[in-house]
Design a protein that fits this description.
The complex is a heterodimer of chains A (341) and B (64).
Chain A lengths: L1 E7 H4 L12 E3 L6 H8 L4 E8 L1 H6 L3 H11 L4 E4 L6 H16 L4 E5 L5 H4 L4 E4 L7 H16 L10 E2 L13 H13 L29 E6 L3 E3 L15 E4 L11 E3 L7 H5 L7 H9 L5 E2 L2 E4 L7 H17 L2 E7 L2
Parallel strand pairs in A: 1-3, 1-4, 4-5, 5-6, 8-12, 8-13, 8-14
Antiparallel strand pairs in A: 2-3, 6-7, 9-11, 10-13
Helix pairs in contact in A: 2-7, 4-5
Chain B lengths: L2 H4 L4 E2 L16 H19 L7 E2 L8
Parallel strand pairs in B: 1-2
Classes of the chains: A alpha/beta (341), B mainly alpha (64).
Chain lengths: 341, 64
């Protein structure tokens, strides 16, 4: 099969964070880690091209992966292989969205990423296989990704035994014991000290490595972000009051303070009357401006980002986090204050 | 342990109420502004402090 490999700017050898805003770029041969993929795929499949894109650029433009898919198709791609993205959220989102785009056009596609990567949720029913947490695990992770690609190319099913993660299609099987018996068996196992046995694994929370300390706040741009659903009066963009599926940016350029009546909180999880009487109770712009004026911070970012943190699905919340980080990072912001309700 | 610690937020500044994280409607406007100022000063201290795990930064009692 003719394979096109998608990878980020690091793995393509284009650059590090300084090149995170690089646009999609077509290379007419495998580049960077794509060469390892080409070797592992063997003689039956050819990596005809690599497409690279900077992490910030890819994560900040949700529709971009349709264009990337189009670029791939123009090279005659019969299959897309993306990653491995490891634990990188921005890279993972890009790979997941590329899989979702490929699925709508019936192009076989497979991606590799860490099971905790928010990109797993973006991939929908696309084929994702587990990768390690970091590039240290490249050899094993690319091996698993290549093996899954070979299976997919042969029209075989990629399943949990191949390291598949995410939304695995459910198959009807016949259990050897009926439900009541299995439930009692699990209860007995629990009483015997087995804390993990289950037929329905719960949601997992990932562990986030804290960012380093800011050395000199007077030299950096700081952003205000909030899940307190503070929006311009009238909620012109219809932010949801609960179970938010999106977030919004609002400008702060030339805004010195947030007068009552100009902004309101549409959060559905508490009475917004205190916030509506004084919006600074949710977004502390007045004091942030003072700190900016006094030179305590280098500057205040020119917009704030907002969503409603009220019964938000964990996959959406994780996506918001990655998208916020990409947008802020891409604008040169080095620290953020998140007000949480 | 607070929810913020349980979900793993790295740097946490406790505030006084869910509907008003950077305020306190019980105070008169001047006092409330001073309280918000202290919260943000604490946030800046948190941002400047290296942490390895969820860490709570309380507003210092003697901070003006």
């Amino acid at each position: 099969m003719r394979v096109v490999h998608y990878l980020n700017q690091f793995q393509a050898g284009i650059g590090g964070e300084d090149a995170a805003d690089a646009p999609p770029q077509l290379h007419d041969e495998p580049v960077g880690t794509g060469r390892l993929l080409a070797r592992l795929l063997g003689d039956e499949h050819e990596v005809v091209a690599s497409i690279s894109c900077g992490d910030d650029h890819a994560a900040s433009n949700p529709g971009l992966m349709k264009e990337v898919l189009e670029m791939a198709r123009e090279t005659g791609a019969e299959m897309i292989v993306a990653g491995p993205a490891f634990g990188s959220g921005r890279y993972g989102l890009a790979c997941g969205r590329l899989l979702a785009a490929a699925a709508t056009e019936d192009v076989p596609a497979v991606a590799g990423m860490h099971p905790d990567n928010p990109g797993v949720d973006e991939a929908g029913a696309g084929v994702v296989v587990a990768a390690g947490a970091s590039t240290r695990d490249m050899k094993e992770s690319m091996g698993r990704l290549a093996a899954a690609a070979v299976k997919l190319a042969a029209g075989e099913t990629v399943g949990p035994d191949d390291g598949r993660v995410g939304r695995i299609p459910r198959l009807t099987v016949t259990a050897d014991k009926r439900g009541a018996t299995r439930a009692v068996d699990l209860a007995l196992a629990r009483l015997a000290g087995d804390r993990d046995a289950t037929e329905i694994p719960g949601a997992l929370f990932d562990v986030v490595t804290p960012a380093g300390a800011v050395e000199d706040l007077s030299a950096v741009t700081v952003a205000l972000v909030t899940e307190g659903a503070l929006v311009p009066a009238g909620n012109p963009d219809h932010l949801e009051a609960a179970r938010a599926t999106r977030w919004l940016p609002y400008p702060l350029d030339g805004v010195a303070a947030l007068p009552a009546g100009d902004y309101e909180s549409v959060h559905g999880g508490f009475s917004p009357s205190a916030a509506n009487d004084d919006p600074h109770r949710i977004l502390p712009l007045d004091v942030a401006r003072e700190l900016e004026e006094e030179g305590r911070i280098g500057g205040l970012h020119h917009e704030y980002l907002v969503t409603a943190g009220n019964g938000t699905a964990v996959p959406n919340a994780r996506r918001f986090g990655v998208e916020w980080a990409a947008r802020l990072h891409g604008s040169g912001v080095q620290a953020a204050i998140l007000t949480a309700t | 342990m607070s929810i913020a610690e349980k979900v793993g937020a790295p740097r946490i500044v406790p505030t006084r109420g869910i509907p008003y994280p950077t305020g306190d409607p019980e105070l008169d406007p001047e006092q409330e502004h001073a309280w918000r100022r202290r919260l943000l000063e604490t946030a800046l201290r948190a941002l400047s402090t290296p942490v390895k795990q969820p860490t709570v930064f309380d507003v210092e009692e003697d901070a003006a």
